[in-house]
């Protein structure tokens, strides 16, 4: 299977082309809502459309990946990925670190949560997976913790429910350090101030900083299987044809639900796998 070279794609595209189909790994500040943060970024960039991959509460900071223009069509597939958070919880009663660790372990695996009263989603119990919930450091009643959870898990509620078992606890600070494949350690991770600075430099003829920030939408190849197709069938695919087995370069069994269809390094689209007779998959998003 041919690996998609994102660095090559980024170097080959102009800034205008990148702005039509790219993602920014934004460092959301405390205060604004997720919507307000990406609206600010939208104005800085001067683009028509933006969307983000998972809401953060106003006071929560950190990784807020946002799609630009046509990359907004990819949001569905990026949103449903695991998230990592680092935060501080304040214990209402001082308990030993050993006892706290024992209680935190009880929240690993499948848990049931009722969304908070002020959440925008329907208040009904839902199952979520917690794969990590650990103490980084404990000082008196303040605990620095890390948690890796399924998308849609409420960390504030997780701390509250833990508190019910240990005499009370509430969250005082939270930062998202990872959302799916996007992390605060990524080279292009950027805050609003530095984004504005990069755009100003671009307007003056220096594009290096902005180019570093813009992530080609072809990064969708990192979250789903890639299928390469023969060039003679591109016209049919671009006009909405299902992906037929005869179109594919290398025949192999596809077991994933969705695939990214490419012709060399050019994205054709995202397809939903059917594996019905000669129809391998049907288009969900076709990139022209």
Question: How would you describe the overall organization of this protein?
Answer:
This protein is an alpha+beta fold and 288 residues long. It folds into three domains: 6-79 and 182-219, Pseudouridine synthase (2-Layer Sandwich); 83-179, Alpha-Beta Plaits, CATH 3.30.70; 224-286, PUA domain (Archaeosine Trna-guanine Transglycosylase, Chain: A, domain 4). It has nine helices and 15 strands. Strands 1, 2, 3, 4, 5, 6, 7, 8, 9 and 10 form a ten-stranded mixed β-sheet that branches. It has a five-stranded mixed β-sheet with strand order 11-13-14-15-12. Helix 3 runs parallel beside helix 7 (192-203). The protein is globular, with a radius of gyration of 22 Å. The two termini are 23 Å apart. The model has no long low-confidence stretch (mean pLDDT 93).
How are the secondary structure elements laid out?
Blueprint: H1 6-12, H2 15-20, E1 21-28, H3 34-45, E2 50-52, E3 61-69, H4 75-79, E4 83-91, H5 97-105, E5 109-113, E6 126-139, E7 142-149, H6 155-166, E8 169-179, E9 182-183, H7 192-203, H8 208-213, E10 215-216, E11 225-228, H9 234-238, E12 243-244, E13 258-263, E14 266-276, E15 279-286
Parallel strand pairs: 3-8, 11-13
Antiparallel strand pairs: 1-3, 1-10, 2-3, 4-7, 4-8, 5-6, 6-7, 8-9, 12-15, 13-14, 14-15
Helix pairs in contact: 3-7
